[in-house]
Design goal:
Blueprint: H1 2-19, E1 25-26, H2 27-42, H3 50-61, E2 70-75, E3 78-83, H4 97-111, H5 122-138, H6 157-165, E4 170-174, E5 183-195, E6 198-205, E7 210-215, E8 219-224, H7 236-239, E9 255-261, H8 266-271, E10 279-281, E11 284-289, H9 293-301, E12 306-310, H10 312-326
Antiparallel strand pairs: 1-3, 2-3, 4-5, 4-8, 5-6, 6-7, 9-11, 9-12, 10-11
Helix pairs in contact: 1-2, 1-3, 4-5
């Protein structure tokens, strides 16, 4: 299974090289690129042999593979490789019968997990897989999901996941939104969370010895660190219990929040709770949460339909932000 996974990663890496009409990829370039991709994927040094690359090219060109139009072009004494058809890519090809059978078998396995405690997320995955299979077979899409196809940083998702599994300490090159300066953080990675269609990594920052969250779309590069990995001692279910979003000041205590709701949004808030602590009586929404930017954003997103009554600190924050908004109009 691992070998088969490695092969798929190599094929996709080679596909990217052969599709690039603006750079010449010689055999050593292909070896280096595939090795780098595998190393990044597994967060451990991986090298691909020259023989393996030639075998991969032969397979990709074959009918059993992708029937890829790979051509070798002489450049003096050297040879570089590319697709003769600039529009070709193995990623654009429809699923073959074997791939469809494998997906259907996976769907059948997932269906058995539907009613198991803790596996509610399976329903969403099943819907996404079914949508992909049906679109491939029928060329007609009947369901869509809230995914940002232009989101930066998703290429780091699997390497970070592997680093968490393998307890690999990382040096993360990071550039925040409000600075042109890049920082390098030495982090023991613990947890990945998606919020508001963005991915965040949570881990222990070795310099400050605190949990830090890093947005994947602000990560520039990740490298294996020589520092020792610090084991995780945090229950992340509890970590997120008292907050909305990803910002958690662990030194702060949850506040009792009271918000007045307009009549027209009460059914909406009831059907789509803001947080598990919410309690609605009449037109008053009560929450017990830590104050953070994400909570403010949720309240502001409802505009005139929400009025913060307590605590005074949150009321003043919302009032000041609305005053700043009014200055723009």
């Amino acid at each position: 299974m691992a070998q088969n996974k490695n092969a798929q990663i190599r094929y996709k890496a080679l596909d990217k090289c052969f599709s690039n009409q603006f750079k010449r990829f010689y055999i050593n370039d292909l070896i280096e690129y595939c090795s780098d991709v595998l190393t990044e994927h597994y967060a451990t040094e991986t090298t691909v042999s020259r023989r393996q690359i030639f075998d991969d090219i032969d397979f990709m060109k074959s009918e059993a593979g992708y029937d890829a139009p790979i051509e070798s072009v002489k450049d003096g004494r050297k040879v570089f490789y590319r697709y003769s058809d600039p529009e070709f890519s193995i990623l654009k090809m429809p699923l073959n019968p074997d791939e469809l059978n494998s997906l259907n078998e996976a769907m059948e396995t997932l269906s058995r997990m539907n009613n198991m405690p803790g596996f509610d997320w399976v329903n969403s995955i099943q819907a996404k897989l079914s949508a992909g299979i049906n679109t491939s077979q029928q060329n007609r899409q009947i369901i869509s999901f809230e995914d940002n196809e232009f989101l930066k940083g998703v290429e780091f998702l699997n390497p970070l996941y592997q680093s968490i599994l393998n307890e690999q300490c990382l040096d993360i090159h990071y550039q925040g939104f409000n600075t042109n300066r890049k920082n390098v953080f030495t982090v023991s990675p613990y947890y990945l969370k998606q919020y508001n269609n963005r991915w965040f990594l949570f881990g222990n920052n070795h310099k400050v010895e605190k949990i830090q969250n890093l947005a994947l779309d602000r990560i520039v590069e990740i490298q294996s660190s020589k520092s020792d990995y610090e084991p995780c001692e945090i229950d992340f279910d509890e970590y997120f219990e008292d907050i909305i979003g990803v910002t958690n000041n662990q030194e702060e205590q949850p506040a009792k929040i009271v918000i007045e709701l307009s009549n027209n949004i009460i059914p909406y808030i009831q059907s789509k709770p803001i947080h598990g602590s919410q309690n609605i009586k009449g037109n008053l929404l009560k929450l017990e949460l830590k104050l953070n930017y994400e909570l403010e954003s949720v309240i502001l997103s409802f505009g005139e339909n929400m009025k913060v009554l307590e605590p005074k600190k949150l009321k003043e924050i919302i009032k000041n932000r609305l005053q700043e908004v009014n200055k723009n109009y």
